[in-house]
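Subject: mismatched residue count in predicted assembly?

I count 665 residues in my input, but I want to confirm that the predicted structure covers every chain. Input:
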Amino acid sequence: MTGTNDPLLTVRDLSVHFPVGGSLLGPRRVVKAVDGISFDVRRGTTFGIVGESGSGKSTTALAIMRLVKISAGTVALGGTEISRLEGEALRRERHRFQMVFQDPYASLNPRKRAGDAILEALNLMDVGAPTDRPARARELFLQTGLRPEQLQLFPHQFSGGQRQRIVLARALAARPELVVCDEPVSALDVAIQAQMLNLMLRLQREFGLTYLFISHDLAVVRHLCDEVAVMYLGRIVERASREQLFARPLHPYTKALWSAAPSFDPDARSRKDRIRLQGDPPSPMAVPSGCRFAGRCPHSVDACRDQDPPLREISPGHAVACLRVDDTGQMR
Amino acid sequence: MTEASAPLLLQVQGLTVEFRTRGGLARVLDDVGFELHRGETLGVVGESGCGKSVTALALMRLIAEPPGRITKGQVCFAGRDLLQLPESEMRRVRGNRMSMIFQEPMTSLNPAYTVGDQISETVRLHQSLTRSAALQRAIEMLEAVGIPAARQRVHEYPHQFSGGMRQRVMIAMALACEPDLLIADEPTTALDTTVQAQIFDLIGELRSRTGTAVMLITHDMGAIAEMADRVVVMYAGHIVESGTVRDILQDPRHPYTKGLIACAPGRRTTVPGQPLQEIPGTVPSLLERGAGCLFADRCAQVQPLCRQSIPPLHTLQPGRQVACWMQREGAST
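Triage response: the counts match. Full output below for your records.
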């Protein structure tokens, strides 16, 4: 998965703010789910967004898919500014970017045969000649490791892993350039998860797909992604290539996240270098001033609570938003 | 912290559970046996549908009957066979000597009662404490599981807690009577990575402080590596391998165990971007079972013998068992 340097997806200063309240329940407030993030995804590569609940990673995916209202910023796909398109113009571009959701049980209509779910996607996006579409559906089933005779079955006749294959087949129906995957393997058992990850890697190679991959699972992100952004409370706190990020995490949150991941080594259990964060992430409704992580950060100083740290590049391709990290990547 | 010399707390033998379904009688657990010593953590690992949760429910005698039924076996817990106890006696064991936490902390708490009410209800059910003493106990338990401002928060409702905090409340409730055994069924699956680490630390710390034995049910080998002293691997209602956590992770013998370890991304030996080792196919339906090894259809090393009869659980050395024809003496591996 080398990819090219030509970015397929360009996200600039993207913000998604949701108004809440403003009724009897209290004053109108704003949830800053995504608050000014920027990144590029190179064609043919996989860009991972990792973070915990409330970090804004799923909202980022929905905003890029134009499934939630973008409050500020731009999203461009191969030169087309999709964040500006509306109505029919947006619908005409939709075949270029498709999405796979986490829950394969909720993403398929239980009353519709698997084949019809694929045909519907082909019809809606007007892919190819109508007479060729059944053949295309069979082809998609074969490509995703399903059998063409299964096109006649209903979703409940498939296992969770097979359903996720149907969802992937449907997403690929229109030959998209970008596939946005929001926790596509999180609901699957380990053995089935490996099958699905292998399938995604194979399809990427065969069709030159570009993935935006959202996950809370570091092991999966490390396996699949060429570049990774770590999100915390609506912001990107660190962004780097997979190699840089896993070999040399710089942000205290990234370090804590890495250190919390299980190791598969029973002898590593009692190691002393573990970082244990206190408490839960603050609510995105009451984002603290200054650095959003300061309240849980073992390295925070007074300045962290006053200044909002910008994302700055420490080495080529490796950017971090932390006041305490100096220009060589050391903690001050 | 392997407590092989610690006294035996739980001995399960020949546990068999069947469910009546529209398609026929499904044997969900078949001749399951294992032991658990005081203060020990036993990991129970396998995919969905392998019988892990049913094992836990059978121990607690919480299998819905009908459609389910424990048809055979013994569950000797602190010297008594729980399967022979009258329900009134069993109620004194449940939540008191043996308690359970579930995957979904949202659905395990009653939204209409404060967490303090729910913890003190458990305590008052099993111990003759006054209302205020039980509430005091609830506060202590919330403090023990690391909930800040426990004295105020004891009066709050479940929706006022985050997911990780709710799981802490569940643990506080489960441990309020200082049980001998805590059964944790996927306790961190719904939680974030940093919160999962906090919960594991908490269970480990409480275990060493109170001597509670833990049965950790999970599909995650990483969680096993973090928590377990000994491990049983379940497949399609059978135990297919057991051993210490090092045996299982560093020298797995059953092809299923090997597959479960090899298919997980993120280990030192996996190469990013390269295909992961797969276990092809899925767990077989409980109704369509042939004569042979239940794993045969997914096994890369399958032999004609494997299709003919089910391999029994064979003891390699004390505490180390595997059910695979290829692991018998004389078989080449």
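Residues 39 and 209 of chain B are 9 Å apart (CA to CA). Marking this ticket as 'not a bug'.
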